[in-house]
Amino acid sequence: MKFTNIASTFFAVSLVALSSCNNEQSSTTTTETAAIPATPLINYSIVNQYPHDASLFTEGFLFYNGTLYESSGSPKDLPLTKSLVVAHNLSNGHIETKVELDKSKYFGEGIVFLNDKLYQLTYKNQTGFIYDAKTFKKIGDFKYSNIEGWGMTTDGASLIMSDGTNKLTYLNPKTLTQEKILSVTDSNTPLESINELEFIKGFIYANVWQQNVIVKIDPSNGKVVGKIDLSSLMNEAKTKNPNVDVLNGIAYDPATDKVYVTGKLWENIYEIKFAH
């Protein structure tokens, strides 16, 4: 009987010790999980707004030699849309068509200028087009293995494209072959649906499809290091036209150090200011 009491006491003490150990492990795990910091928000202000042709289903948005260019897609359920590349006159909202694709064959996607050439992606054809940057005459095309083409930008050396996943593909502008893949993560989680892209002072800024944010990506490791929440602009766009689609379009003018944003079928282009 005495032995039984001793054994029971030993068993009880062991349970307490084991429970304490488990609690310590649980606490450590919780602490480690909580140690992943939330991505910091980047504050911004609206500087100005300009008219935007509300028939443009925005896919690409950028400046080249001081002019704002935009590429648009052409969803089948929106018969008035066209797959275009246009030049904007910000002062009066007029657009000049530079390229038009046959919408029965192609859905225009992102664009980028590099080395006096304009590159354009298409949605599901796995085909890109190359144009002379001065005349906009088509001078070539290229294939890519990505299932879809979404956004484009450049770091001055490579073409960088998104495809709706969490991966950014770097292409050699001379051979149009894949150089590398950059996997993008937000708080250690893959960030899917990366859309329109813009390269600003060493960082890649990107729209995320169906989210009202622009993320700032460190190209050295693919980590999201900041976010701009543009929900207020999306809400304003909806009050002007309830049929607007998602936020999409980031254009940086290096000559003026200004940034402009818009969205699919939006009635306005917004100039925004933030630390970059």
TrEMBL record:
SUPFAM superfamilies associated with the record: YVTN repeat-like/Quinoprotein amine dehydrogenase
Keyword Signal part of the UniProt annotation: yes
Keyword hit for Signal: yes
InterPro entries, alphabetized: QCT (IPR007788), Quino_amine_DH_bsu (IPR011044), WD40/YVTN_repeat-like_dom_sf (IPR015943)
PROSITE patterns: PROKAR_LIPOPROTEIN (PS51257)
Pfam family of the protein (one): Glu_cyclase_2
Signal peptide extent: 1-19
Keywords: Signal
Entry protein name: Glutaminyl-peptide cyclotransferase
